[in-house]
Amino acid sequence: MHPPTPSRALLLCALAALGGKAVAEESSKTTTTSTPVVTPCVATATTGAGAFFDLRPDTAVVVPEGEKPPKGSPVDDYVARGWDYGSNFTLNFCSPVVKEVEDVVGLDKDLWKNVSAYYETKGKVYALGLSDGNLVPRGRKLVLQYSGGSPCGVSDEKSKEKRWEVHDGATYKYHEYDDDESEDSESRRASKDKDEDDEDEDRKDKDKEKEKEKLKTQRRKSATFSFLCDRDPDTPTAASFVGTDPDECAYFFEVRSMHACSIAEPHKPGSVGPGSVFAIIFFIAVLVYVVGGIFYQRTVAHARGWRQLPNYSLWAGIWSFIVDLFTILTSSCGRLIPRGRGYHTLSGSPSGRRHSRDAENRLIDQLDEEWDD
Ligand SMILES: *[C@@H]1O[C@H](CO)[C@@H](O)[C@H](O)[C@H]1NC(C)=O
Ligand SMILES: *[C@@H]1O[C@H](CO)[C@@H](O)[C@H](O)[C@H]1NC(C)=O
User: Which CATH class is domain 38-63+73-152+220-271?
Assistant: First the structure.
């Protein structure tokens, strides 16, 4: 084997540097445009082929006053008909409902803006849960769950009634006890009433504390959405109410959506994207062309110097054309400056350049032969 000629080594170095730069640029581009790893309303199935889901286009967005709604995004909440349940459900996916809700039963005021699904009955708003973008793929199903809605229970009215029943029972017992007492003991009865009042007060305080405890550990309404893939682009995304449990604590919905179909995962930062793949293939192709061409020219055509480059005359022609074009442009620009120097360079340069290039070739040939021997 001959040691590599200086010109070839130089050329390879330049190519490698160019290719390395291109790849580096591509990778730095992908890292700058990277998104945070946890994106709400987006999920990748960990099993199987790693199906990727992105439900964000289904989220109804709030359009600020006077602005145009973004194309393709819904701007109204979804309504699921309740049928026999008696109320319709208003909901949004992965985001609070667009319509502002107020006076939500059993929820703090600062959480009203987080309500993602609710229903109204007798003028009261019951939340089914707060916004949550935690989309979970389970096998072929895609599931979204909201929790922390209004307290469970059939309705506020009914639970109040129950509480009154207990209270009535207690007072009734007290009257029964009273009847056993003799009728004329008025004073005793009065003092007893006072005692009972105090006891009542104590009991009320205790009740209040108990109520507070209860509020903390109270079960709250939740909603579970199961998404089904519907490839028909003409059917809009729609949610249907499936049912609830007897406690009216957990609500189930089925959602048909185009976006619940698994799609190809977009380019992840850190991996090789299509742009870099193209750059790498292009670089390898150029390398093969140059190295293969040089090998052929040297061994078969016995070319030396710059003529070892594949299709030297073609590339040299293109190069001289570019140089001529540049010269003409610069000289015509120079002619605008009143000095007439441009013409000189135009007439003098081509022969001179050719001369110098021939000399260069001769020099390289000489060096090459010295290396070969
Ligand atoms: C629920 O929606 C349907 C259709 O939009 C409507 O006919 C019905 O009156 C609504 N029910 C209630 C309780 O609002
Ligand atoms: C409610 O929404 C706000 C943003 O709008 C968020 O910062 C906050 O964590 C949410 N609260 C709950 C309990 O989800």
Answer: mainly beta
